């Protein structure tokens, strides 16, 4: 980072950056809400895992203790969170929820689609 110091004269230290991160959460969430698309009648629900550490480090990981959980995808086990989201047919984000890793993918769906209009298709 020393060779980039001239390009970033007011760069804070890593410790100060970590201290400032919680202050940025509310403005970032507010900005995200302004970027949501419009419901077009066709929506897709999916989820993805957000791993916070390697499986071997789960027992020593302290940053998200009490928040993250061990979960399973169709491929493997992970430690972290699940991001559940709804998008429209144009790929625009309509709704999202962040849950612990062990949350069943079907559980947050009613809350995700509560404000959406359309017709549900069932197989």
Key features of this structure:
4 strands; 2 helices; 123 residues; 28% strand; 4-stranded antiparallel sheet; alpha+beta
Structure description:
The mean pLDDT is 87. Helix content is 20%, strand content 28%. Strands 1, 2, 3 and 4 form a four-stranded antiparallel beta sheet that branches. The chain is extended and about 55 Å long. It has two helices and four strands; from the N terminus they run αββββα. It has a domain at 36-112. The protein has 123 residues and is of the alpha+beta class.
Question: How many beta-strand elements?
Answer: 4
Q: Note the total helix count.
A: 2
Which consecutive residue ranges, at least 5 long each, have pLDDT under 50?
none
How would a crystallographer describe the biggest sheet?
4 strands, antiparallel
Distance between the termini: 54 Å
What overall form do the CA principal axes indicate?
Answer: extended
Helix-strand pattern: HEEEEH
How helix-rich are the residues, as a percent range?
Answer: 10-25%
Strand content: 25-35%
Give me the Rg, rounded: 19 Å
Q: Based on helices, strands and strand pairing, what is the structural class? A: alpha+beta
Mean pLDDT: 87
């Amino acid at each position: 980072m020393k060779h980039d110091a001239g390009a970033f004269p007011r760069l804070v230290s890593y410790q100060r950056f970590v201290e400032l991160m919680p202050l940025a959460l509310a403005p970032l969430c507010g900005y995200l809400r302004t970027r949501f698309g419009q419901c077009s009648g066709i929506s897709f629900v999916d989820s993805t895992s957000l791993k916070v550490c390697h499986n071997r480090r789960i027992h020593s990981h302290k940053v998200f203790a009490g928040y993250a959980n061990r979960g399973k995808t169709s491929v493997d086990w992970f430690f972290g969170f699940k991001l559940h989201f709804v998008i429209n047919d144009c790929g625009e984000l309509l709704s999202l929820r962040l849950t612990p890793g062990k949350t069943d993918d079907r559980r947050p769906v009613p809350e995700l689609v509560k404000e959406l209009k359309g017709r549900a298709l069932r197989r």
